[in-house]
Write a structure and sequence with these properties.
The chain is built from 16 helices and 12 strands. It is an alpha/beta fold. The strands form 2 sheets. It has a 7-stranded mixed beta sheet with strand order 1-7-6-5-4-2-3, with helices on both faces. A 5-stranded mixed beta sheet has the order 8-9-12-11-10. The chain starts with 10 loop residues before the first helix and ends with a helix. The protein binds pyridoxal-5'-phosphate.
Length: 396
């Protein structure tokens, strides 16, 4: 019997079974369609393709079977009607802004957001006359009063990078719907395995596929997902401006999606084990993890996430200098800018990614001097814990 993908299958089944069409070779795993364009039998077929009268690929900047496979799998995972994959997470975020915002519009964004997103909002959007207001992610009740007649979009990241703050998505959905503004959620930290904002009522979801979705630190990628009418706008902007995902990257990322569920479960189990153990560590001021009862928004985490994710944060006693010493004493964990890898990673934002900001500016975005962010990998959790605890002892 012909194998088919049923829409009633669980998302993890669909993420494995949705495939681009087999070629006459009947390959079991999906082939990679490394081609920049597609050809036609005759002038009439080509005319019909360009007129959108037949379902045919034209040019890889618009779409490509490998890229479409990744998009379809992501749609199944997020519960989305449509998706457009992009070259990076930032091109997904940027495309989701530019498709909807024009001169004179206003963007409301949470202040705890990814560094490059902050740069886009504060340095580049003003060039086109698009204004913004930042709000405290943890206080969605303040949002309604900040909405202006020209507010078009609310943008949030939950959990946030690197502070692990959350926003009550249900509360925010209500406000966005009431005021008819687009709610755009960067779901990079949770992935669709742990949190599905569109099913709660968000309008758009953006991802950096570079992180947990790839999961092995190999390729860049991003995607915007949501209702077809909205994603069509993103597609129209991106198809002409060019931030298309490479078919090679799409092929890699589609293979990654086949293991996303099992990987996220392990990342989250190990992260919770590590966070629980570190809570007793005398070298730390505090430990933050969404599924620790001590997290200020533990109840929100339990309501909208199925597990706490793979990032654990803690504050070292001894501040900035101790942070640098701690990194130097690690033997297993990698020192690198990425996160969401099978290899565990430690980073110290105050001396690296956010070193150019003043101490006050850092505090404004929740970055304390001794803040360490751990991306918990897939190594045995005892080895990860031993490396961190030994480095804490040695960095006194
Ligand atoms: C990394 C990241 C991005 C940007 O993604 P790139 O693939 O690096 O362009 C956006 N949002 C969050 C939360 C991220 O962690």
């Amino acid at each position: 019997m012909k194998r088919k993908n049923k829409p009633t299958y669980h998302p993890e089944t669909q993420a494995i079974r949705i495939q681009s069409e087999r070629t006459p070779h009947r390959e079991h795993s999906s082939p990679m369609y490394l081609t920049s364009s597609f050809c036609y039998d005759d002038a009439e077929q080509m005319r019909a393709a360009f007129a959108d009268e037949i379902d045919a690929f034209i040019y890889t900047r618009f779409s490509n079977p490998s890229v479409q496979e990744f998009e379809n799998r992501m749609c199944a995972l997020e519960g989305a009607e449509a998706g457009y994959a992009t070259a990076s997470g930032m091109s997904a975020v940027f495309g989701s802004f530019m498709a909807f915002l024009k001169t004179g519009d206003h963007l409301l964004s949470s202040s705890s957001i990814f560094g490059s997103t902050h740069t886009v909002i504060t340095k580049f959007l003003p060039k086109w006359g698009i204004e913004h207001t930042y709000f405290d992610l943890t206080r969605p009740e303040t949002v309604a009063a900040l909405i202006k007649p020209n507010t078009k979009m609310i943008f949030v990241e939950t959990p946030s990078n690197p502070g692990l703050d959350l926003v009550d998505l249900e509360a925010l959905v209500k406000i966005a719907k009431q005021h008819k503004v687009i709610l755009n959620v960067d779901n990079c930290f949770a992935t669709p395995v742990l949190q599905r904002p569109l099913l709660i009522g968000a309008d758009l979801v953006t991802h950096s596929a570079t992180k947990w979705i790839d999961g092995q630190g190999r390729v860049l990628g991003g995607i915007v997902l949501g209702r077809k009418e909205l994603v069509d706008e993103v597609y129209a902007f991106c198809r002409s401006t060019g931030p298309a995902m490479s078919p090679f990257n799409a092929w890699v990322l589609s293979r990654s999606l086949e293991t996303l569920h099992v990987r996220m479960e392990r990342h989250a189990t190990s992260a919770l084990t590590l966070a629980t153990a570190l809570q007793k560590n005398p070298h730390l001021e505090w430990v933050k993890y969404p599924f620790l009862q001590s997290h200020p928004q533990y109840n929100i985490a339990r309501k909208q996430m199925t597990a706490g994710g793979g990032i654990v944060c803690f504050e070292l006693k001894g501040g900035l200098e101790r942070g640098r010493r701690f990194l130097d004493k690690l033997e297993l964990l990698s020192l690198t800018a990425n996160l969401g890898d099978s290899r565990s990673i430690a980073s110290h934002p105050a001396s690296t990614t956010h070193a150019k900001l003043s101490e006050q500016e850092r505090l404004n975005v929740g970055i304390t001097p001794g803040l360490i962010r751990i991306s918990v990998g897939l190594e045995h959790v005892a080895d990860i814990q031993e490396d961190i605890e030994r480095a804490l002892d040695a960095s006194k």
